[in-house]
Design brief:
Elements: H1 2-5, H2 13-30, E1 94-96, H3 97-113, H4 121-138, E2 148-151, H5 188-194, H6 209-220, H7 230-240, H8 244-258, E3 262-264, E4 287-291, H9 355-358, E5 361-364, E6 370-373, E7 383-387, E8 398-404, E9 410-411, E10 417-421, E11 427-429, E12 433-434, E13 440-448, E14 456-463, E15 469-472, E16 478-480, E17 491-496, E18 499-500, E19 505-513, E20 516-519, E21 526-527, E22 533-534, E23 536-541, E24 547-549, E25 560-568, E26 573-580
Parallel strand pairs: 1-3, 6-14, 16-26
Antiparallel strand pairs: 2-4, 5-7, 7-11, 8-10, 8-13, 9-12, 13-14, 15-17, 17-18, 17-24, 19-20, 19-23, 19-25, 21-22, 25-26
Helix pairs in contact: 2-8, 3-4, 3-6, 4-8
Length: 585
């Protein structure tokens, strides 16, 4: 097993050179105009982190594996004898069984919940390969949880973004700085809102490949991107890790996996070796530490703290041996010229506080009244301003907006949480709210990511859909003989300010008279599911185009002229005349 996990992909110089050309061509065809963040640039569709050193990404722009796929296309299955594939390069096309299952189940779930995203499982596989080598070659248990925890390096600003601790070490065991965690390398602050339960065990665990794969899919689809569109695909990948090299590497594996893959046993996957930070390691772009300890449902796993490495003992120095060029007695070695001592170096200054660390409080930035009709977009957006103790604006701070309460209202894109970075004015504006069908009040809370300060609560209300007018769609007289049934059904159209009003609640009642809105006890009636006479229908709702078609009407033995009154939310009302009379002889 040790030999199995110690495998590395070795590429010759010629192969590497050709692969680089292939990646460049793929980048040119699929990712025009991408900014190379390794040179200090930033993609227009990403947001800076709290300190400006890293993108607001799933991984915090942590290191990743840079190995490229083989040039030859993979074959979809291993060799006939059940051993390793015989064709060169096909070993790289093998994906551990449980990990592959997680990718495919995440694709199926997103196809149902967000069909417009068109998420391919091969994209999750490409990201999983680059982030952790498919969970360290598939080192997962039967439930999909990694057998050893996969952690990225501390995001302490030393070559990476600087992200101070946001989870109290609950996920990454680090109470000073955040680290990327798990097979898909989520940082804790991102996992807090994007985590999903992919295996149905009631927990959201970043160390579980089913949970992590589903969370990655939702993250890539969160902004209504269509991943079948090359531009949206590029933007989604860059939002995961904002680097052109990362984009090219993921696209290379995506195209490779689209040509064919096959399943290999868990733990038998090949492991990458090259890392974007120049280091090397096994199993993940970060470190694999102690085995993950099972935790109670709903509680993130707490990893053991790695022990500090011991200080190596310097080797003993051996004095140079005596030399005797002439064969006589020993002589002293030729003295070396004295070395000029180096001037003492000035220790680097301690880094100052990050913008996040200077935030003292949040202020409302002029948010208006938050009210919208069900099914519509709120006209007003929520804005919060980060300020220091002196009341000055603080830019480059991540503000998290979270919808709470009994509501199905979401931000644009269908999420209940959104993280936005403040600009130079210190203001962060949340995406527009889209009202669901549940009416009533709820709260949006704004908090500072990575800083414990009082949050801001914004009250919002969803009102019911309304109609201000009702009209029949036909002017045919509604008549019936005693004891019979009306030939036609009553159909009306509801409008609001001249436009069709769909989804409006309505009530239909057979009233006693124009002045008596009470229910009549004789004359026409509807039938309930049991066939009994009812004269009031509540809980009706207009459909597409504002149309409402009532059930069939029946008449008892009492002749006369009767009234049917239809009312809606918003005050619209219509009275329809019904006649019950004996047929003419």
């Amino acid at each position: 097993m040790a030999a199995q996990f110690g495998r590395r992909v070795v590429k010759g110089a010629a192969t590497t050179a050709v692969a680089a050309v292939a990646v460049a061509a793929l980048s040119a065809s699929q990712a025009p105009g991408v900014t190379d963040t390794s040179r200090g640039g930033q993609n227009a569709n990403s947001q800076p982190s709290a300190d400006g050193k890293g993108g607001d990404s799933a991984t915090g722009n942590s290191p990743y594996y840079t190995d490229l796929p083989p040039l030859n296309s993979p074959t979809p299955s291993p060799s006939a004898d059940g051993g390793a594939p015989g064709t060169p390069g096909t070993a790289e096309a093998g994906i551990p069984a449980t990990v592959l299952d997680a990718y495919k189940k995440a694709e199926a779930s997103l196809a149902e919940s967000k069909p417009g995203c068109h998420l391919p499982w091969q994209l999750l596989a490409a990201i999983g390969k680059v982030e952790s080598g498919h969970a360290g070659g598939g080192r997962v248990d039967a439930d999909g949880t990694t057998r050893t925890q996969i952690l990225g390096p501390p995001l302490n600003g030393d070559g990476f973004a600087r992200i101070t601790d946001t989870d109290g070490g609950a996920y990454d065991g680090d109470t000073a700085h955040d680290r990327a965690v798990g097979p898909m390398q989520f940082i804790p602050s991102t996992w807090e809102w994007s985590g999903r339960d992919g295996n149905g065990d009631g927990r959201k665990d970043p160390n579980n490949v089913y949970d992590a794969a589903l969370a990655a899919g939702h993250y890539l689809c969160r902004l209504d991107w269509d991943l079948s569109d090359r531009g949206d695909l590029r933007r989604a990948i860059l939002s995961y890790n904002n680097s052109t090299d990362y984009l090219n590497t993921v696209l290379s594996w995506l195209e490779y996996y689209r040509k064919g893959t096959h399943e290999v046993p868990d733990g038998a996957g090949t492991l990458p070796s090259g890392r974007s930070d120049g280091n090397s390691g096994s199993g993940a772009a970060g470190r694999i530490v102690t085995p993950t300890t099972p935790s109670s449902p709903g509680t993130p796993s707490s990893p053991s703290t790695p022990s500090s490495p011991s200080t190596p003992t310097p080797p003993a120095t051996t004095p140079p041996s005596s030399q005797n060029p002439g064969g006589g007695g020993s002589t002293s070695p030729e003295p070396k010229p004295p070395t000029t001592p180096k001037p003492p170096t000035t220790p680097p200054a301690s880094p100052g506080p990050t913008p996040t660390e200077t935030v003292d409080h949040l202020e409302d930035a002029g948010t208006g009244k938050l009210t919208a009709t069900a099914g519509t977009v709120f006209a007003e957006k929520i804005s919060a301003r980060a300020e220091d103790k002196a009341g000055k604006a603080v830019g480059k701070v991540r503000i998290r907006f979270t919808i709470t309460g009994d509501t199905d209202t979401t931000f644009t894109g269908g999420e209940s949480v959104s993280t936005v970075v403040t600009g130079s004015s210190g203001v962060a504006t949340a995406p527009a709210l889209t009202a669901g069908e549940k009416t009533g009040g709820f709260t949006v809370r704004a908090t500072v990511v990575g800083r414990t300060v009082s949050g801001l609560d914004y009250a919002a209300t969803v009102t019911a859909r309304q109609a201000d007018a009702l009209a029949r769609t036909a002017d045919t007289a509604l008549t019936c003989v005693p004891g019979g049934e009306f030939a036609g059904r009553v159909q009306v159209r509801a409008t609001y300010k001249g436009a069709a009003a769909a989804g409006v609640a309505a009530t239909a009642t057979l009233v006693g008279s124009a002045d008596d809105a009470g229910e009549n006890d004789k004359g026409p009636y509807f039938k309930d599911a049991a066939g009994k006479a009812v004269r009031t229908l509540a809980g009706l709702r207009t459909g597409t185009g504002g149309l409402l078609t009532l059930p069939k009407l029946y008449a008892d033995d009492t002749a006369g002229t009767y009234l049917l009154r239809i009312t809606t939310t918003g005050g619209a009302a219509l009275t329809v005349e019904l006649k019950v009379a004996a047929a003419a002889s």
